[in-house]
Amino acid sequence: MSDGNEETERTARLVAAWRAAGRTLTRSPREATVGESLARLAEAPYDMDAPTDVYGDGIVAELERRVAELLGTQDAAFFPSGTMAQQIALRCWAGRTGNPVVALHPMSHPEMWEGDALSTVSGLRVVHPTTETRQPTPEEVGAVGEPFGTLMLELPLREAGFLLPTWEELRALVEAGREREAAIHFDGARLWESTVHFGRPLPEIAGLADSVYVSFYKSLGGLSGAALAGSREFVEETRVWRHRYGGQIFQQFPQALSALAGLERELPRLPSYVAQARMVAGALREALAKAGVPWSRVHPEEPHTHQFQVWLPYEPDRLTDAGLRQAEETGTVFFRRWSPGGPPGLAVTELDITEPGLSWTESDVHDAVSAFVARI
After folding, report:
1. What pLDDT band is residue 3 in, cutting at 50, 70 and 90?
2. Residue 346 burial (CB count, 10 A)
3. What angle do CA 350, 216, 210 make, to 5 degrees?
4. What's the CA gap between 199 and 366, in Å, rounded?
5. Distance between CA 139 and CA 252 in Å, rounded?
């Protein structure tokens, strides 16, 4: 059997075990059937007897209005993907500022996951205020050695452990960018859950930036899609580019319905997910130490959002298989997939706490970790 076939078989086993599990911290989108996903659309807060949406003239327009209201911006535009939304936002700012240089973190989404689209598609260039595994500092932004037209801040910085600056640091970062005469763009794919860490409402957070991108599936459980929010004039310009990039799609009402459902169902719950993630992280550190694991790291120690990283000194396949056996044999899912990370011999995974994880206690975490470690 080829490596590719082996991985396909393992993925099928993982999904089957996750779906059958009675206890889990979250549910993966892979677990839902097509029928289940379609049935959830009917839960959206929208009149199902209304005419269907064509080119965004109905449900999509309602979603755009709702996002602008939640973020406190003049307008918002729906996009089929976050990659398209970010590319267009940064391209528009380059045109407005006359400077194609974007200052961002090298671990940010455009650098890691968008296939060099900033340069290849949009003709932009990047500079890095820092290469450290953390958010940049205002001093580093001020010390960038050449002019830049846009400062992009990913909130939270997912690859570094879902890290957020403090509220005071964020304000100082924005001010440092403005002192360089740059536009400020927030990559807020997971901005929805940042209110707990910042201690501020969404409009106050979004109000620091000139434009904000938000995702509808990363924290809200939507099918797909994103939005760009900002001034009415800026958002109208992004709609022009959306059409040029092929994002003016005939019908996107399933995605919009799922986004509206997520705003109704998941957004109010996110603060409770963050609080539960902090409990799970603390119990997990204790459980790993008690289990005698030679080295471990929960990062950050107190999660900034409802997601955080865990590092262990084993090969990732070994850990993934241990989690698979635990799920199949006990019906409990704690860890899912593991990946290589950092020096050889270390593996990293992400924990995501959502509604299924709210019932977990510290004792539950200790029991799950003990069962996992016994299978490594």
Report:
1. confident
2. 17
3. 100
4. 30
5. 43
Per residue in 297-324, pLDDT (tens digit) is 999 999 999 999 999 999 999 999 999 9
Q: What is the pLDDT of residues 280-297, one digit of tens each?
A: 999 999 999 999 999 999
3-state secondary structure of 186: strand
Which tokens sit at 129? 């205020």
Token pair 């797909």 is found at 224
Q: Please, how many CA atoms are within 13 Å of residue 305, restricted to the half-sphere of its CB?
A: 27
pTM score > 0.90 for this model? Answer: yes
Phi-psi domain of 340 (left: phi exceeds 0; alpha: psi -120 through 50; beta: other):
beta
Strand partners, 344: none
pLDDT of amino acid 169:
98
Encoded tokens for 27: 């549910």
Question: With the C-alpha atoms ordered 120, 107, 26, 214, is the resulting torsion angle positive or negative?
Answer: negative
Helical segments of the chain, H only: 3-20, 34-41, 59-71, 82-97, 109-112, 117-120, 138-142, 167-179, 195-198, 202-206, 232-244, 253-265, 270-290, 316-330, 362-373
> What is the rounded CA–CA span in Å between residue 343 and residue 224?
34
Residues facing residue 186 across a β-bridge: 153, 212
The helix/strand/coil state of 269 is helix
d(CA 339, CA 327) in angstroms, rounded, equals 18
Token pair, residue 267, equals 């957004």
pLDDT in tens, 145-201: 999 999 999 999 999 999 999 999 999 999 999 999 999 999 999 999 999 999 999
**Phi, psi angle pair for 289, to nearest 5°:** -65, -45
Write the single-letter amino acid at 36.
E
Distance (Å, whole) CA 121 – CA 130: 25
Report, in angstroms and rounded to the nearest whole number, the Rg of the chain calculated over CA atoms. 21
